[in-house]
Amino acid sequence: MAEQQTLTSSEYISHHLTHLTYGKNPETGSWTIAHDAAEAKAMGFNSVNLDSLGWSIGLGIVFCALFWLVARRVTAGVPGGLQAAIEMIVEFVDTSVRDTYHGKSKLIAPLALTIFVWIFLMNFMDLIPVDFIPRAAQWVGVHFFGADPHSVFFKVVPTTDPNITMGMSLSVFVLIIFFSIKEKGLGGFIGELTLQPFSAQNKLIQLILIPINFFLEIVVFIARPISLALRLFGNMYAGELIFILICLLPWWLQWSLSVPWAIFHILIISLQAFIFMMLTIVYLSMASEKH
């Protein structure tokens, strides 16, 4: 690969793990695209990863358009291949929701379907050859914008960006709070955080136990979105890194290793989407239960 001929192994890996970041340069005060990882880091909170955000939105549109198209052209009798696949996914998600969620809500099933398919599509980008899209982006950057080829970064797997996975998990976290307050009321929600796991009939002892209960419950409560985000990010980041490392090997080893790993990775990307969906359903089911 041409890019590998001009970069060392560590530079090649670093280049593929750097995002296309747009933000405010702290030195000049201007808004620009970062030229390297150090500049992107210096931008801090005043930055956005254009590649992750773009692919996330784009794949979300693909998901909506695909399901809308199938729903519009749905036929009775023997369905076509695409319709059959969509129906299997919908039925699978619907069964998972019915078996796991014990409350009553019209939001849970569409939410679970969106989470599963959207995350699967984002994870699926990891199966595209490592250099294919980044080198196309590099060509566009060089020929249309006059950019330095080594300063053009473009990651294509949104779920390898902790900002994306954390954003999704924080959305689930907000829904957990919403469902808890909706089903139990504000008092019930606060009581759930302060009156368990330790309780007592004596009001004085109960008052003493409130800070202890709150600390234990809030740790568990906050750990849910963090674990959701880090689990998805960690597994997909590791998979992406392995693909990159395989690309550094001699060409005759690349196919013999990348194909088996890609086949195995299909299981990983599906499993991670399923786990995120199921944990979301479980957390929302727990939030809807009245103790």
Primary descriptors:
mainly alpha; 10 helices; 291 residues; three-stranded antiparallel beta sheet; 3 strands; disordered N terminus; 3% strand
Q: If you had to describe this structure to a student in words, what would you say it looks like?
A:
This protein is mostly helical and 291 residues long. It is 72% helix and 3% strand. It is built from ten helices and three strands, in the order ααββαβααααααα. Strands 2-1-3 form a three-stranded antiparallel beta sheet. β1 and β2 form a beta hairpin. Residues 1-5 have low confidence and may be disordered.
Summarize it.
The protein has 291 residues and is mainly alpha-helical. Helix content is 72%, strand content 3%.
Which spans of ≥5 residues are poorly predicted at pLDDT below 50? Answer: 1-5
Within the largest sheet, what's the order of strands?
A: 2-1-3
Order of helices and strands: HHEEHEHHHHHHH
Q: Oligomer, anyone? A: single chain
End-to-end distance, in Å? 60 Å
Q: How confident overall, as mean pLDDT?
A: 90
What structural category do the secondary elements indicate? mainly alpha
Radius of gyration: 23 Å
Q: What is the number of beta strands? A: 3
Beta percentage is under 5%
In DSSP terms, counting alpha (H) and pi (I) runs of 4 or more, how many helices? 10
Describe the main β-sheet briefly. Answer: 3 strands, antiparallel
Backbone shape: globular
Helix percentage: over 70%
